[in-house]
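Anyone? Bumping this.
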Amino acid sequence: MYRYFDILSVVCLLFLTSCRHEVEIILSENTPLPIEQRSVSDFAEGEPIGMYLLNEGNMGSNKARLDYVDFAGAQYVSSIYTDRNPNVVKELGDVGNDLLVYGSKLYAVINCSHKVEVMDAKSCERLGQVDIPNCRYMTAYGGKLYVSSYVGPIGIDPNAQQGAVYEVDTATLAITARVTVGFQPEELAIVGENLYVVNSGGYRPPVYDTTMSVISLKAMKQTKQVRVGINPYRLKADKYGCLWLTTRGNYMNEEAKLHLFSTNPLQEIETFDLPVTDFCIKGDSLYYYAFDYNTNKAEYGIIDIPLRKQVTTSLITDGTESEIQVPYAIAVNPHNGDIYLTDAKNYVSSGMLHCYDRNGKRLWSVRAGDIPAHFAFVYSSFLIPHS
Amino acid sequence: MRKIYLLNILILSISFAFANQTDSIWTGLQLDEIEVSAARLEKDIIIPQRLEGKQLQSLNTLSVADAIRYFSGAQLKDYGGVAGLKTVNIRSMGTNHIGIYYNGIQIGNAQNGQVDLGKFSLENIEQIDLYHGQRSDIFQSAREFGSAGSVYLTSRRPRFKEGEHFHIKAQMRAGSFRLINPSVLVDVRLTEKISMSMNAELTSSDGKYKFRYKRVTPSGQTAYDTTAVRQNGDINAIRAEASLNDYYSNTGFVRLQLYHYNSERGVPGAIVNNVWRNGERLWDRNSFVQAQWEDEFFNRWNIRVNAKYANDFTHYINYDNRLLYVDNRYLQQEIYLSFANCVKLFRFWDLSVAYDLQWNRLSKYMNANRLSHWLSLATAFNVKNYLRLQASVLGTFVKDFGKTQNGKTSNPQAYRFTPAVFLSYRPTQKADLKFNAFYKQSYRFPTFNDLYYTDMGNADLRPELAKQRSVGLSYTLPFCVETRKNVKRSMFSIQADYYYNRIKDKIIAYPKGQQFRWTMLNLGDVKINGLDVNTQLVFAFDHDVTLTTKLQYTYQTAIDVTDPNDVFYGDQIPYIPWHSGSAIVMLSWREYTLNYSFMYVGERYNEQENSRYNYMQPWYTHDLSVSGEWELKRKDRYAEREKTATLKEQGARSKNRYTKLKASVDIGNLLGQDYEVILNYPMPKQNVKCTVTLTY
């Protein structure tokens, strides 16, 4: 009998010491970075004072997380959104898919929360949200935000779920127009008076979409749909008014490629047999990485834009690229040419953010959130310099 | 009088002797039932955990899933509500390693290997047993040797007293979330030996329950506090069962069973920022027919033949026009045949051979066929009742036919041999103290989804291996308490096990890039150490008051040891708590019962990485139930005669039945804790159920 009550008391004690408490939200944690601390006033015009990093988080986990790299304070600030906006129910949301600083505002596409979250770029305080179903990527021009969405007209044939581009007024945050485009539109770019968006058809394998839609910004109408290659995904404009885009292929017999299109006239001028996964453009250089998901091998390189030639295939020069398991995003500091690369690891644990100098030597690394994926630079004047 | 008293003692001491062998709480068995269970149980050299009878009824549970939470070493994954998916994981080895047996025949799911226990109603279940390793009785079908852990569901068997020809039971249950759950049961005795049982049940609930998310800042201020109503968690389900039993001799019986289940439900989905309802719908139709024949020949050769045909249809729709439109139908068919033999070579040595054959087919959305064979050889020794030993080896042969989704022809075949050894040692016959140990290997073969699912499937997968080592002891102490009136018999028992499991080649989903592309890989290695403790106490008091308590506690570490370079190397695997336990206290007085149960699941993480972002708080619930049973006397002309009837006549009449009325009220999550078992799937707060049962 005594033994019985002994066990009982041990068990009771255990329960008492491991009781449930109120659930706390997770505020910022600051990690010092091995860079020089500087005053914001010391930053040159067009030199970013910081960089936001959006971690996607896994679908259904509600773990999208916004972090901030503070170049002035020389620290990495995790979970800054929750910290500045603790009263938002269920935090930032589910699957962060794109990030943009435009004017004085910071925009974050939260894909599975079906919204674009709008914040003050400097303080990260919430200003509002725009409800856009299954939104994917965004770009901005002339006081308007353009957001691609998998959801176009509703109630049509379920086997043909067309997507759309939404136009949002950045002052009022109201949706002002919606244009139906192709299937599952992804990245967008603006050249001149036209908005370009690539249609992946990602919901329809193995019959992927192959087109790019051209939308006249004035009329907010799709004027053209041109064939660019199977399953297009990334799309960026260079300073010469040309479009760089990737096609992912069908994962069977069609390989992933990088394409260059001129916009006037709209035609393909160069194809690179490079399975580019993601890229970014700084001046005349296109920084890319190509990751083969079957062999798990990555290549990091630079393409010279005017020459249309690969100038290097070893962006990282100190051998530390072997530490990157799954490269997932790339950005280049427009001022000093530092390269930022993220590693998504196995996608279900926290990733890494690595910084390399312009010569490809690693400067620092820091632990990020789950799937670190999207960057946005912040400037003291809040003006985006021309690239 | 004295004679009766002695007889009572005798009956009770016998029942103790056998109650010792089970983990059930002794509830005063009838002598004839003892004999039945005795013959069967003595073969289990390691005692299963068991819930049965009155205790099972008092647990405030609707489905088998809720009852299994009270077993040590078992973790239930529960997505919430009546309609939410509920699967069980034993000793951290993963759902796919667990065999669920319904009247001795496994319930399969070749498509994803998971059995939703929420679909199995407790209404017709008499007994639930949980075995770690395997059932330690060598007389079993070959396939039963293949599970790493087993749950046996035994449906009610019709029992008739002298002169009885039929029973009727009608029950109505209603409660929170607009739960309506009527059921009816009819038992008919066709001949002396043949009986039939029919049972039907309807379950309906709108699944709308309030849930609350409250978060605070580290300084203790409320960050947000919001309450919403769970949407799209409704269910409409019907279950109908019929069985024909022929206990044609003392040793042999034939049983034929039909089972049909049909449901439509909403899939409530994860609650995330800006999303408070989801639009998925699911239709399930599960039907099977199974037959069993068992007999003994020449007093030493036992034969059992099992046969089953199952036809399961699933229709899944995602109505949400914001997301990928999905409308998938799956049809699964299974044919199963088993032939088991056990021969008593000597009084101390048994030998068994069993062969099972199974054919699975998945059609409609995917096409796959599988033919599996199991061949088992087992032996059992009994050394003077001190040492008992069982050893078995199982050969499993699996061959797939057909084409994968992208048109590639594949026919992976695999065969594996797995050994198991079970030991039990009882140092003295004077005390009921036993030591036991087992070692077992088992494989989980890849499911159709693992192998062939669109893009994701990987036809090169190897089976996942689980190695189990376990040592334990059990001790039962019957004791007497002297009260003012007489001597009351009570009992205490304890069972403790330590185990070390290793999972190798764990099959996990691994990303293959963006665009919803994942693949299945044999990647993952897990080390599991655990301790299970079960205790129970039955205490009898004066005035027919009995107190029954049962405590269960599990401590386990389940460590990922796949790759030292992973950030989560050495971390506890997802959703495995270090501490978990439960307590049941049942107080009964004559036909009235008050039951309190407590469930505790400690802190755990919802991802591989044990970081604060993935941390989940402990949760615990208190459930309470009160029930009473009354005999409804007919107010007829016999009532007068009753008064003057002699004692003997009254005794004879008591055999004649009255209509019995039973009523109970159950309150779940009494303190209304807001908790989640699975991240972003909130569980219901307080909920009430009322049940009225009429039996004749």
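Late reply, but here is one note on the structure posted above: Chain A has two helices and 30 strands.
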